[in-house]
Design a protein that fits this description.
Layout: H1 3-26, H2 29-32, H3 38-42, H4 51-76, H5 88-95, H6 103-137, H7 140-143, H8 151-164, H9 171-198, H10 208-218, H11 220-229, H12 236-241, H13 243-246, H14 248-276, H15 294-325, E1 335-336, E2 345-346, H16 348-365, H17 368-372, H18 377-396, H19 402-424, H20 427-460, H21 466-476, E3 479-488, H22 497-506, E4 508-521, E5 532-536, E6 541-549, H23 556-562, E7 575-585, H24 592-607, H25 611-614, E8 622-630
Helix pairs in contact: 1-9, 1-14, 4-10, 4-14, 5-18, 6-8, 6-15, 6-16, 6-18, 6-20, 8-16, 9-14, 9-15, 10-11, 11-19, 18-19, 20-24
């Protein structure tokens, strides 16, 4: 083999290695900071740190990481990608239930479950920064107990800085995420290994019999402890949501080569420290380090938790853009912070909301131990939804035998339901906050999706078939003025109400009229040859279909420029966009529950980002036409395809 051939063959491996290092920071930041507090919380339920109890808890931790992360997520869930994109909404788009038997009733059910899972994931975007940063800063209580009053102010300052840097994008600082997190995992592995050498008997916890015996002897108390054991896998769902950033292989390589061994060594090392120490251990993670290394470890832990928080915030941005495109939340401003990487985005409204809620949660809880009671409720519920949808992916996409799919997902569901039950016991102690927030988000998202479907149905009743419009134009000899008019319209719609309104009041039309339809497809990104379709009509009319994937941001002026290659050449400076601005009226005689739901939709509708801003239409070239629409409980015709505009 020549040197050039060897160098060429090494390029894919080098790229895989770089992506694996990058995945450490973005994908494994959340699960990688769990050792700071997870084992501590497992022993905070009045369980004596005896030999059998510690080994039993460690055995549960080992097998939880093995079954749920190493087997379910790494070997099964990551395979359920939608052309490289992951996350519960991408999984919903991948399944396409309407194409399968029972899709008429199963499709709406899956959509509701996916919306609930998305709401729960957004709640995790609040809890992860709060508990991660707070638990790291609490290491000061070990190094210098007199600094305990500064824990909350330092945490608030770090969180403010974290949310502040979002507006500039994470591209520049992101190059440091992987290396810093790699150092973090290596340090955890080294600290754990040193403690294991001093008490090697802790490795007996690899035997599942210790975990089974612990559950049997502790009985109902062990169920509560399972809620704390679940803390070790709370980053698993974010792992799936971040799939599109790196791909499956780098994520798997990083897990099995470094993350999984480092986590096990750290947890077992903490167990060895507890069993070998003659005094009570309150912070087993930080007490692994010698006294001289405490401050550097606290600084490294703080950096690692900031990175973990950044990963969850970035996932929340990506999830929100998907939800906007799929039509389940109102339009928001989405800022592209990188011209190269499409996933580098910033959503100002969401960032501000996450910051305010996170700060309130930190100040309300006061400690990571208090937050641990709320942490895990959201993700345990989301994991049940993901596992259930995974069964459908096995059957519909991978063509697995029914028995094989049932056995695989049945095993995972036993674990998921066990942890869900354990976390439900924590609801009175703080988990209620997550459920309340998720219920509010679900109500808003489902109401928005329901309202948009009804609005499109109502607008359809106001449309006129194009042949009727053309006959009228020919009969009345409507004046035509120079330039191009663009009217946005829903799919398979005739003359939109905005066009009729404009024609009724101006008695004139531009010489070229484009009926533009934006469609969001059930794939993350579309190749260029599938993005545009031009259909010439008569009397200077054209239909233009602009299609985007659910991970892309619309840009209509750019689409109009690209339409020249499809036979629709227009002068951008001589193009006017006519946008219908609907005003919804809630009738007073509507039943109170339906009226409240309609009012919620009207409130979100009025506060959503203007279509001109969302579609990047120059303000000087936009004309908004007001339309009054009376809200109704049911529309005459429904268009259930998510995201079509």
């Amino acid at each position: 083999m020549t040197a050039s051939a060897a160098a060429s063959g090494n390029k894919p491996m080098r790229r895989l290695g770089l992506l694996s290092v990058g995945a450490l920071g973005v994908v494994y930041g959340d699960i990688g900071t769990s050792p700071i507090y997870a084992l501590r919380e497992c022993l905070a339920h009045g369980v004596a740190p005896t030999h059998d109890n510690v080994l039993g808890i460690l055995s549960l931790i080992f097998w939880t990481l093995t079954v749920l992360v190493s087997i379910e997520y790494q070997m099964f869930v990551l395979r359920a990608d939608n052309r490289g994109e992951g996350g519960i909404l991408a999984l919903l788009a991948l399944l396409r239930p309407e194409r399968h038997r029972g899709g008429v009733w199963l499709g709406p059910l899956l959509q509701k479950l996916a919306i609930l899972g998305a709401a729960l994931m957004l709640c995790d975007g609040v809890l992860t920064p709060a508990i991660s940063v707070l638990s790291a800063v609490e290491g000061l209580e070990v190094a210098a107990p007199q600094l305990e009053p500064l824990v909350l102010p330092i945490t608030v300052g770090i969180l403010l800085a974290l949310f502040r840097i979002q507006r500039g994008g994470t591209g520049r600082i992101g190059v440091w995420f992987g290396p810093i997190t790699a150092v973090w995992f290596l340090v955890m592995a080294a600290l754990g290994t040193a403690a294991i050498f001093r008490y090697p008997g802790v490795l007996a916890a690899l035997n599942p019999a210790y975990g089974a015996a612990f559950l049997y002897h502790e009985g109902w108390a062990a169920v509560r402890i399972l809620g704390s054991v679940f803390l070790v896998v709370t980053g698993a769902e974010a792992l799936y949501a971040d799939l599109g950033h790196f791909g499956r292989k780098p994520i798997q390589y990083a897990w099995f080569a470094l993350v999984f061994p480092a986590l096990l060594l750290c947890y077992f090392g903490q167990g060895a420290l507890i069993l070998s120490s003659p005094v009570e251990i309150k912070q087993p993670f930080f007490e692994l380090a010698p006294q001289w290394a405490l401050y550097p470890l606290i600084a490294l832990a703080t950096a690692a938790t900031v990175i973990a928080s950044q990963a969850v915030i970035s996932a929340a941005f990506s999830l929100t853009r998907q939800a906007i495109q799929m039509g389940v939340i109102p339009r928001m401003q989405v800022v592209q912070t990188s011209a190269i990487r499409g996933g580098q985005i910033y959503i100002p409204a969401l960032n501000t909301l996450l910051m305010l809620v996170t700060l309130v949660v930190v100040l309300w809880a006061g400690s990571s131990a208090a937050l641990a009671n709320a942490y895990g409720v959201a993700i345990s519920t989301t994991m049940i939804i993901t596992t259930s949808m995974l069964f459908l992916a096995m059957r519909w996409r991978w063509r697995m035998h029914l028995l094989s799919a049932l056995l695989a997902t049945g095993l995972f569901l036993v674990a998921d339901v066990s942890f869900f039950t354990a976390n439900m016991l924590r609801v009175p102690a703080g988990g209620w906050m997550v459920l309340a927030a998720a219920a509010l988000l679900y109500a808003m998202m489902s109401t928005w999706n329901w309202g948009r479907t009804n609005l499109i149905g109502m607008l359809r009743t106001e449309t006129v078939p194009l042949p009727t419009l053309f006959s009228r134009l020919a009969r009345e000899r409507v004046a035509r003025v120079p330039g191009t008019a663009v009217f946005m319209t829903a799919p398979k719609l005739g003359a939109p109400p905005a066009l009729q309104h404009h024609l009724r009041h101006s008695h004139a039309l531009h010489e070229r009229v484009v009926l533009l339809t934006v469609e969001i497809k059930d794939t993350p990104r579309l190749p260029p040859d599938e993005q545009l379709q031009v259909e010439p009509l008569e009397q200077g009319f054209y239909r233009l279909f602009v299609r985007y994937g659910f991970a892309e941001s619309p840009d209509l002026p750019r689409a109009m420029a690209l339409a020249a290659g499809h036979g629709l050449a227009v002068d951008p400076a001589d193009t006017t966009y006519f946008i219908g601005r609907e005003t919804l009226i809630v009738p007073p005689d509507m039943p109170w529950f339906n009226r409240m739901r309609e009012r919620l939709y009207v409130f979100m509708f009025r506060n959503a980002l203007r279509a001109t801003d969302f579609y990047r239409i120059p303000p000087r070239q936009a004309v908004e036409i007001g339309l009054w629409v009376e809200a109704a409980l049911k529309a005459p015709e429904r268009d259930t395809r998510p995201g079509n505009r």
